[in-house]
Write a structure and sequence with these properties.
72 residues; single chain; rod-shaped; mainly alpha
Amino acid sequence: MMGTTAMSWFWIWPALVLIGLTLLGYLAYRMTRSRAPDRSPAGTGAARQILDERLARGEIDADDYRRRVDLL
């Protein structure tokens, strides 16, 4: 009777190892994605916001603002 109970739980160890490896792989993927530079055009939003703020404060004029926005 004891051997049957022990064998019925035998399948759980490979399942736990598979779940653990999957989680480690997912964490490694998320860590590498968070360190990768954002190369999409949407990543220029922060730069555009800084330019908007500098224009509003009067640090740059409208022509300089347009030139810099075109460079983005």
